[in-house]
Design brief:
There is one protein chain. This protein is α+β, with helices and mostly antiparallel strands and about 190 residues long. It is built from four helices and six strands, in the order αββββαββαα. The strands form two sheets. A four-stranded antiparallel sheet has the order 3-4-6-5, with helices on one face. A two-stranded antiparallel sheet has the order 1-2. Helix 1 runs antiparallel to helix 3, helix 1 packs parallel to helix 4 and helix 3 runs antiparallel to helix 4. It starts with a helix and ends with a helix.
């Protein structure tokens, strides 16, 4: 594997880590209704765990309300149960046709807890980025041992790996501060 192949793998794996952070942080409640809060909740639909967004149309007609319109009316109870057991602090109301999920505003203490949770999530993803960096650097060193690349190539590669890692860590920091601001907004 050449240096360029290792760098391509580095970019691919780090991009996947950023995407994972984005999707995880989208599920964090901010006090404002968002379909991302409930879209990936797994519903037991005829014995199969199915994401909610595949069973219903999700909408946000008001800033504090999510409306869920199932394609199959028989799934209403299962959807309602899944939302309650998802531990999001949401109480769905079922009127027989649609499920309305009011999103209550967060208390100040709850906002601070959420910020801590998001920061921990961000730190976990930064650790994942550093682990990827270590794997790629180990790959460079093993290629040098096998005489496939020179010591200079290793040094240049490691320098490039560090630049890429710094860029991705900076992206996590930006996403983190934006989410923090969103959570603390009243």
């Amino acid at each position: 594997m050449a240096v360029n192949d290792l760098l391509a793998e580095l970019n691919k794996r780090m991009t996947a880590t950023i995407e994972a952070f984005k999707s995880e942080s989208a599920r964090i409640r901010t006090g404002r209704a968002s379909t991302a809060l409930v879209s990936n909740i797994k519903v037991d639909y005829y014995g199969t765990a199915t994401p909610l967004n595949q069973l219903a149309t999700l909408g946000v007609p008001e800033p504090q309300l999510i409306v869920i319109q199932p394609y199959d009316g028989g799934a209403l109870r299962d959807i309602e149960k899944a939302i309650q057991s998802a531990e999001l602090g949401l109480n769905p109301a079922n009127d027989g046709k649609v499920i309305r999920v009011p999103v209550p505003p967060l208390t100040e203490d709850r906002r601070k807890e959420m910020v801590k949770m998001v920061k921990k999530m961000g730190e976990d993803h930064k650790i994942a980025l550093r682990n990827i960096r270590r794997d790629i650097n180990d790959g460079l060193k093993s290629e040098e041992k096998e005489k496939m690349i020179t010591e200079d190539d290793v040094r240049k590669g490691q320098s490039e790996v560090q630049k890429v890692t710094d860029r991705f860590v900076s992206q996590i920091d930006q996403l983190l501060s934006a989410k923090e601001k969103e959570i603390l907004e009243v």
